[in-house]
Amino acid sequence: MEYWKKESWISYLKNDVLPLYESSLSILNLWKMLNEFDGKLLSDLMKDFPKIELIFVAGTSPPDEYEINGLAYIYKTLLGTSIKLREYYFLKSHGKEPKTACKVEETGIMSYINHISILLERVLNQACELNLLTASEVQNAEENSIKRVGEILDEPEKMLEVFADFLNKALNLTATYNEYTKLLWHLRKITKGYIEKFYPKILEPDVFKFFQDLGLREYIVPNVDDPDIRDMYTIFSFDYALRFKSLDCGSSMYRYVNIDGMEYRLAPSFVIYLPSNEPCKTIGGCLCRINELIWYSFTSERFQSVLKLVVDHLPDPLWEWIKEFKVTFSHDCYFIGSSLDSYESLSRLEECLQAIFVGIAELVMGERGIYVFRKKGRGEVIL
Questions:
Q1: How much is the mean pLDDT over the chain?
Q2: Among 141, 185, 230, 262, who pairs with 175 as Cys (CB 3.0-4.6 Å)?
Q3: Inter-residue long-range contacts of 226-232, CB under 8 Å, 24+ positions, other chains counted
């Protein structure tokens, strides 16, 4: 991997990131088109889209039964499409047109794909500004996604191919399988010493300038006398942020505290809150966030049953990533210090660096101090 060459990153953006954007748009544009049908009569839609009936009724039976893994059930689960089947079959039994209203709702998986697509768009816009991609390349991807929607409306079964294509491209973009995403993930919180050890060419002036264009910045500079130690433990980061939300524990006696904007569940765990408006704006920050969102989509019980409608075998890229590194971190919340202003606090930081580098722990700097939080479990917390 020639990470120090601009051409390598152009290839990464063109061959890995841009195709995922096109694939995500194909799904989103299909949903937007279907959403325009919300409230309209199926009989009227069939005049312009003869195969549209399959989306709502293929694999169903009277009076109102959905066949699991039937096409209408899959569309309903993934894209939120439905009609009143009992009404539909009643009208059909009397030889009447299916004048039943279509309903289209936003599903959890569609909201999630939209979230990923927004971040991908930010990456590509930044890439165009940096002359890593051209506006015409992005426009071609957007136009191709619209054409794909027309193909699906002509053959609704093709939606499964498009969805499977999205999952495959998303999987291949993760740090688990993509060396360039892996590098970006490592850089999300990293000391200069670790950069020198694992990616030394980044410290060359021209290369470092390029990574600054990708969003790499100084995050924390230790306030200690020794210049060599200060330099070695200076932390760099993208505009990568975590927001936490407490779990719903009902009537249990768990306590919650807010630490620098993070709600922390004292016992036994915490989960990441997925905000609708991401703070990430740079290429590096957005791709780190995209990576963990994709990891979560394959790991979360919320989405596993949904995605298994599209693919027979659902991989677990997050678990594959964890298994690759023999690193542990035993603290739920580890206080480094009010700042990196002593060798004692740097010693605490040193204990956490491997876990932070891999991503099983996250360093957070707040107004009242510096903390390292452990990221837990498959499906319990997003890495």
A1: 88
A2: 185
A3: 229/343, 229/346, 231/192, 232/191, 232/192, 232/193, 232/196
Return the pLDDT at 247: 36
Give the model's pLDDT for residue 241: 56
Measured distance CA(220)–CA(287) in Å, rounded: 21
- What is the average per-residue pLDDT within 344-357? 94
Answer whether the bond into residue 268 is a cis peptide, omega within 30°.
yes
pLDDT of residue 300: 83
Highest mean pLDDT among 45-54, 300-309, 370-379: 45-54
CA–CA gap between residue 276 and residue 299 (Å, rounded): 20
What's the angle, vertex CA 247, arms to CA 354 and CA 337, rounded to 5?
40
Sheet of 189-191: strand order equals 189-191, 235-237, 217-220
- Tokens coding 306: 């949904």
The span from the CA of 172 to the CA of 179, in Å, is 10
Residue 264 has pLDDT above 50, yes or no: no
What pLDDT, in 10s, does the model give residues 192-227? 999 999 999 999 999 999 999 999 999 999 999 999
The one-letter amino acid code at 358 reads: V
Distances in Å between the alpha carbon of 320 and those of 2, 311, 337, 339, 378?
24, 18, 33, 34, 11
pLDDT of residue 15: 98
Alpha helices in the chain (DSSP H): 6-12, 18-35, 42-48, 52-57, 71-79, 85-93, 108-129, 135-154, 158-173, 179-187, 192-198, 205-213, 227-232, 283-299, 301-307, 317-324, 343-358
Instruction: Give the residues across from 373 on adjacent strands.
Output: 333, 362
Beta bridge partners of 369: 366
Give one DSSP letter per residue of 81-117, joined into a string: EEE-HHHHHHHHHTT-----BEEE---HHHHHHHHHH
Q: Please state whether 231 falls in left (phi above 0), alpha (psi between -120 and 50) or beta.
A: alpha
Once rounded to an integer, what is the mean pLDDT over residues 356-370? 84
